[in-house]
Structures are given as C-alpha cells and as structure tokens.
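Lab notebook page, bench 4
Experiment: in silico fold of construct C2
Operator: M.H.
Input chain length: 149 residues
Purpose: comparison with the prior construct
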Amino acid sequence: MATKQELSGKWKSISGAVKEKYGEVTDNDLKRIEGDVEKLAGLIQQKTGESREKVEAFFEECCESADSTMGQVAEMASGAGETIREGYDQAVEQTRQGYESSVQSISQHPLASVGVALGVGLVFGMMMGISIGAQRERELSWHERWSRQ
C-alpha cells in the first residue's frame, strides 16, 4: 500500500478516479474529507459496501496510473527539449555558414560590397525619411494641411 503522504500528494488523481468509479461519492463528500485518504476509504466502504482491501487496491492503481502519466509527461518534455536543441544547433550552423559566405563574398568583391551597402543605406534612409514625413503630415490639422496648398 502506498503511504498516506503519497496518496495525499495524488489527491486530485484519486478523487477524480473515485468519482468515476464510485458514483455514490459526491463532490461534497470529497470536499468534506479534505484530502484525508483514510476517511475516503471509510466513506467508500460505507457507501458501496466494498472491502477495505479492494478500496486500498483501487488507491494503489490510482497511484500507479498517476506515476505512469507523470513518466509519460517527463518523457515528452525530454523529447521536446531535444527537438528544440537540434533546431537551435541547426540555426547556429546556418548562421555560421551565412557569415562565412558573406565574409568570403566581401573579401572577393570589396568595391561591389561597398556599393551595395551604400545603396541599401540610401534606400533605407529614404524610406525612414518618407515615413517620418508621413507621420508629421498626419499630425497636422486639416486646416494646416489646407493652408499649405
């Protein structure tokens, strides 16, 4: 038999299984018992007429089921961690390859690289200027916009 402390630690699992198996036990009964497994065993015996041994065997099954579920959850979490780690490693490798490719391309074509960087900078600067200008335009009242024309 599991210890009282083990059973109390798995109260939610046990109480759910009790409600499912023993329909005679109500939510109010479970609230009144407040996690006391000994009282629960007595209540089940009283309401169903089952022997103490059968009730305790049922509690054992509940604990084993909860342990099995926890094991499955831990296994799934471990698998998810490995998948994330593999994805991270792939991203690091792709980033490293991209960096090396960029360094190689820049060293082989330095003037073209400077020209591209200058062009990208100009386009980005123009886009920012247009965006800021559009924002200022939106801040003007209708009267100010009308009088500008």
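Observations: The two ends are 90 Å apart (CA to CA). The chain has two domains: 1-108, 110-149.
Next step: discuss at group meeting.
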